Amino acid sequence: MAEPERRLRDLVEEGTRASRQPPVADLRRRARRRRAFRDAATVAAAAMAVTATVVAILPLAGSERSGTGLPGPTAPSTLESSVTEPAKSLVASPSETVPGGTITLTGTGCAPGKKVSFGIRWDRGAKLSLSMEEQKAQAQPQATATAAGSYKLASANALATGSFEATVTIPAATAVNRPTLWAQCQSPTRAAASAHRVTQYVSIVVHSA
Is residue 143 part of a domain? Predict the structure, then answer.
């Protein structure tokens, strides 16, 4: 092949290769697209990672709220804790008297309108109310009761607020100098259970006549 023909062929092939290469503007546009796709893929991967973390945390928080995690109060126990026994109190005025004397008892914590019983009691071994003359005559320390005792003294109805008041007379035959007065009534929180009763106590001093 002659030298001019070979050069002509080379020029044609070079022109063909040049025509196949995309313009510079297309190359730049393709590069920008690749960068945009790469950035979008990065953002999507980060969003998926955050979503997976939130999904992993939510079941744990839900289990704690539903009681399958750490133990917590339930509705019945909350209701039970809100229904509490009312404060009870029994006051004796005056707190000291003599056999045959009177004492006024006041208190709260009973079912409204229900009967309240009042009485006096003492335990075995309680000191007896001996006068100074009797102690000197017997030439011995103050004696003690050999048996326990209890007497019902009076009754009254509780007010609408559950409070009550009654005046009781200390029996003239009572020889115990530190007996206990009691008040017994039906519980206001268990009105349906008539057998459930509450008893309150207060100590007094009974001096020798």
Answer: yes
The answer, yes or no, to whether residue 105 has pLDDT greater than 80, is yes
Q: Is residue 72 part of a domain?
A: no
Number of domains in the chain: 2
Alpha helix stretches (DSSP H) within 73-176: 75-82, 132-138
Give the max Cα distance, the chain: 167
Q: What span, in angstroms and rounded, lies between the C-alpha atoms of 184 and 206?
A: 22
With beta carbons less than 8 A apart as the criterion, state whether 68 and 89 touch. Answer: no
- Say if CB 163 and CB 107 are below 8 A apart: yes
Q: Where are the alpha helices (DSSP H) in the chain?
A: 3-20, 24-66, 75-82, 132-138
Q: What is the extent of the structural domain holding 21? A: 3-66
Q: What is the per-residue pLDDT across 39-87, written as a single tens digit (0 to 9) for each?
A: 777 767 776 766 665 544 444 444 444 443 334 433 333 333 333 444 5
Task: Check the CA dihedral 159-161-167-173 and report its sign.
Answer: positive
Strand pairing category for 96-97 and 205-206 = parallel
Same domain, 189 and 97: yes
Q: Which two tokens stand for residue 59?
A: 């079941």
pTM above 0.70, yes or no: no
